[in-house]
Amino acid sequence: MPAPRNDAPVDYALIGGGIMSATLALLLSELDPDATIHVYERLGETAQESSDPWRNAGTGHAALCELNYTPERSDGSIDITKAIAINEQFKASRELWDFLADQGSLPAGTPFLSPVPHMNLVIGEANVDYLRRRHAALSAHPNFADMLFTEDRSVIADWAPLLMDGRDDAEPVAATRSDAGTDVDFGSLTRSMFEAAKKRGVVVHTSVEVSSVRRSGKGWNLKVRDNRWNPLGERSTARARFVFVGAGGGALRLLQSTGIPEVRGFAGFPISGQFLRTFDPELVARHQAKVYGKADGGAPPMSVPHLDTRVVDGRTALMFGPFAGFSFKFLRFGSPLDALKTIRPGNVLPLLAVGRDNLDLVKYLVTELAATPSAKLRALQKFFPRAERGEWTMITAGQRVQMIKPDPKRTGSLQFGTEVITSADGSVAGLLGASPGASTAAYAMAQVVERCFGDAHPDWVARLREIMPSLARADADPHDAKPSGPV
């Protein structure tokens, strides 16, 4: 599709060809079927950045195995409020996918979704005690009632044989397991959603890069360039009444270009990642699970080690990681100048404050960057003691940008979730942050619809909650949840 010309404005312009824009395009086409919706993707195909299946872990994040969603309180009890909220948000995604499949908009049988148990494995008495208390808290809630806990080594070996093969008998270990877990090929899902959107009249422009978004009257002007034929960088203008910026690591700079006050003070901290991967059929056959452990001190939640079953294009592999790295790029296919381009007078202090307050993170990144292949193999061997280097190859995963949020009390704070940014008039919105990201795309894009259009179209909000009943529970204040017993 050629770059758009300066014609009549479209109703909705969505920047970025990933799961977020695909989800929003389908929601808007359902709610406003006569609207004009255009999507702009800078690369030659959709789903090439974070939505590509090998750029993410594919975990259907439902808080079944992510220990960072269940922190320990000062009194020793386990806080499960965030886990409940994330679980409901992922349920909303499942409900939307089921709705689209029933409509015929997604392939029958959801081939992008594979049932894969979600597990935890912890080592050491203190960690075993934590996992026991976490299980007691979660399993008392109906969303997690099927979760199992064991300290029986033979049971763990039955659940995931590689975990116990060659493990020291003197190590205290424990595991949990939920058969409700999934592996998601977000690349396949994103492409299918865009195909469905195009059948509804959505126009998807690939190889078209948006460099800025500027207010123009009641709408917005987008400076665009067709990357296929325009090496000199000549730009044309597209116009839109509403703009959504779902450009992953490129979202911050584009939101800054809008001039909306809601994004002032925000900054980004890039973290890249690598995974060890194997297609060895014997190993794949002996490990059918996503197994998450505990992060080392100072490690960000998105760097929690995990040994995963992955199903991509019908082929099964195992992945272990992530191993964190650092790059000034904000996108996998970005520029080393990405980070510098987002520095503004209003976010310098938040950036400096995060550096001051997160020395453990800095130390962790330095350690990761200095890690040798032997050190990375030893990290894998904590999960799979008999792992050998020749069975695994290193792949580069996606680039993530952790959000730095302005904080009046501390100047700035590093955030490890995702956040929807909307302008006061509801004419522009964007998404910042990383995990749980793709898994909660339906919830995040429903937030965009409700914040930007809910007052004018309450019927749209009601319709979304018909399609995704879990939205109402996910929207509830998680702190209203009652504690699950004296744990």
TrEMBL record:
Pathway: Carbohydrate metabolism; tricarboxylic acid cycle; oxaloacetate from (S)-malate (quinone route): step 1/1
Stored Pfam families: Mqo
Keywords from the named record: FAD, Flavoprotein, Oxidoreductase, Tricarboxylic acid cycle
EC class: oxidoreductase
Residues spanning the membrane: none
Similarity section: Belongs to the MQO family.
Name of this protein: Probable malate:quinone oxidoreductase
Catalytic activity annotation: (S)-malate + a quinone = a quinol + oxaloacetate
Lineage of the organism: Bacteria, Bacillati, Actinomycetota, Actinomycetes, Micrococcales
NCBIfam families referenced in this protein's UniProt entry, alphabetically: mal_quin_oxido, PRK05257.2-1, PRK05257.3-2
Cofactors demanded by this protein: FAD
EC assignment: 1.1.5.4
Superkingdom of the source species: Bacteria
GO biological-process terms attached to the record: tricarboxylic acid cycle
GO MF annotation list: (S)-2-hydroxyglutarate dehydrogenase activity; L-malate dehydrogenase (quinone) activity
Presence of keyword Flavoprotein: yes
